[in-house]
From TrEMBL:
<protein>
    <submittedName>
        <fullName>Uncharacterized protein</fullName>
    </submittedName>
</protein>
Length: 575
């Protein structure tokens, strides 16, 4: 048979369930800390709305009239009359004397829980009518109350593990000490907890943030340690850590912090050494001349500064190792010296690569120092990435996107076809072909062969973050340097098609640059999407006014100085 404690507990849950969704918090009187026009969700991103509602309704004395009216109106006469044992005044006494504290579960005995209050340092036996407590967690931020000398759990604010408990309790004690609150000597600590619950919510949020950082740092340290165990011998790992510390604190011209050092160490290990069953302690088998050649060929350095920093890092590291490791072989130093002598070759390879994320720093400076509107093209490509993440993008057995997928994605991205045909193919949308090719060669997407479609399903690769982590200017520079490279168009168009587009674009660029474009200039419809790409990239102003933008003119002049106009979209730095 249901007893009064069950009724009080159930009533509280019903009130809080309604309050968290529909209570008008502007009707309540807030302490000064909240009178800033903020939403409660902005103030307490770490605490649920029920916990916040419980504080407003049950703990703030200034809200007493509001709270009684709210409770009465929301449980209604039918509810009250449904339980002969229910007395509203008794319930008010019960719920307004409730308080929240931090508890550890010591024992569970049926519907009764033996708890230790970690703030008040007392043990209580509480009735758990609704089975709030489970064995998954030992620690809870609970609201409890007392009726006829029997405690009952009426609300669970949150639960947490033992590690977080230590963070939270320490921060809470620091806060109480700051407020000069001596728990043992404080006359009515329960009243203090009620009135200051909102501040405890703040402490909880701060503790949770610190704990999340602590857990992430511990995870990162563990991951880094696992990586170093693979990348170095045991002896060299210790020397590497000492070298890394000395380089981070160096006052000389060459200095890198730990994150920068780990970036370069991970880059060469992941992109070359691991795949060749080598590590940094494989002295006799390390050929840095070959390593840097292959990485540069694949555009694995984002700029020339990265290339130079990487070379200098490993030159300094192996010189350091030479001092302390008696088994060290000079071969790595010799091969690094040869690699440094070939720096210009690596620069050319990087500039000519379309696979990686190398960005021409001069081009990047032009973009940074130019005023231009946000590129629609960059935004559309990121919409393309989103499409792959949330929808199926798959290819047929012939390696092309299926007509159904082409129709769907072109509609989603608002792309315009070169021809008005019934069965749309990917080659009817130059922009789609460019997006797809770019995503493939930059390893943003990969093809999953085994899937429910029984053919190639595109999915975002683990390397997609490399593109997404670039800033806006870097993305734009990467696109420009990729689109100007002739290698990008292989397998997209026939050589005749490329020559035809090239001739058209050269003619257009020259006429615009020399201000000789006819007033009634016209072009075939097949070129419209290509011009559209240049407009979306911010090179031309618009279709009605085919003129260079400020940015477009600077980029055209830069490339025209770099290579003859006749070779635009035909760069080959190896020649």
């Amino acid at each position: 048979m249901i007893n009064k404690l069950d009724i009080f507990s159930l009533t509280t849950s019903l009130i809080l369930e309604k309050a968290k969704n529909n209570i008008n918090f502007n009707d309540a009187t807030y302490p000064d800390i909240l009178n800033e026009g903020k939403e409660e969700s902005d103030i307490f991103p770490f605490m649920n709305k029920s916990a916040f509602a419980g504080w407003i309704l049950f703990d703030t004395k200034s809200n007493l009239t509001f709270s009684k009216d709210y409770i009465t109106n929301n449980i209604g006469d039918d509810y009250i009359n449904g339980f002969s044992e229910f007395n509203l005044d008794e319930y008010f006494d019960f719920i307004f004397s409730s308080y929240s504290s931090i508890f550890t579960v010591e024992e569970i005995e049926g519907s009764y829980i033996y708890l230790r209050d970690l703030i008040l340092n007392v043990k209580i036996k509480a009735y758990d009518s609704q089975h709030f407590i489970n064995k998954e967690f030992n620690n809870y931020f609970l609201r409890v109350s007392k009726y006829q000398n029997e405690y009952v759990i009426v609300q669970i604010n949150t639960s947490f593990n033992d590690d977080f408990k230590d963070f939270f309790i320490k921060d809470l004690r620091d806060y109480l000490n700051y407020e000069k609150i001596n728990i043992k000597k404080f006359a009515d600590m329960k009243s203090y907890l009620k009135e200051n619950l909102i501040n405890i919510f703040y402490v909880y949020g701060s503790s949770l943030s610190d704990y999340s950082t602590y857990v992430q740092e511990r995870f990162d340290e563990d991951q880094e340690n696992r990586f170093l165990n693979k990348a170095f011998s045991k002896e060299d790992k210790e020397l590497f850590n000492k070298f890394s510390l000395s380089l981070s604190n160096s006052t000389k011209n060459f200095q890198l912090n730990r994150d920068e050092i780990m970036y370069y160490v991970s880059l060469i290990y992941d992109e070359y050494l691991k795949n060749n069953d080598l590590n940094y302690s494989s002295y006799k088998d390390l050929d840095f001349k070959k390593i840097y050649y292959e990485l540069s060929l694949r555009g694995q350095f984002c700029n020339l500064s990265e290339l130079n920093n990487s070379l200098m890092l490993f030159k300094n590291y192996y010189l350091y190792i030479k001092k302390y490791n008696k088994n060290f072989d000079d071969l790595p130093i010799k091969s690094i010296d040869k690699a440094i002598d070939n720096t210009f070759i690596y620069q050319n390879l990087l500039q000519n690569s379309i696979e990686g994320y190398f960005v021409d720093e001069t081009l990047l400076d032009i973009i940074k120092n130019s005023y231009f509107e946000e590129s629609k093209f960059i935004n559309e490509f990121e919409n393309f990435i989103d499409y792959i993440q949330y929808y199926y993008l798959y290819e047929n057995k012939n390696g092309e996107l299926s007509p159904a997928v082409v129709k769907s994605i072109s509609k989603e991205l608002g792309l315009k076809a070169t021809k008005n045909v019934k069965n749309l193919r990917e080659y009817h949308f130059p922009e789609l072909m460019v997006f797809l090719k770019f995503a493939k060669i930059k390893n943003i997407i990969s093809v999953e062969k085994e899937n429910l479609f029984k053919h190639g399903l595109y999915e975002l690769s683990s390397n997609a973050y490399k593109y997404l982590n670039l800033d806006y200017n870097e993305k734009l520079a990467l696109w420009f340097s990729t689109l100007i490279n002739k290698e990008f168009y292989r397998d997209m168009y026939s050589q005749n098609k490329i020559d035809k587009i090239k001739k058209f674009m050269i003619d257009l660029f020259v006429k615009i640059d020399e201000n000789k474009l006819e007033k009634n200039y016209s072009y075939q419809g097949e070129y419209e999407p290509i011009i559209g790409i240049l407009i979306d990239l911010g090179i031309f102003k618009d279709f009605d006014k085919l003129e260079f933008t400020n940015l477009g003119k600077k980029i055209f002049k830069y490339y025209n100085k770099l290579i003859p106009i006749k070779n635009i979209i035909n760069i080959d730095f190896k020649k």
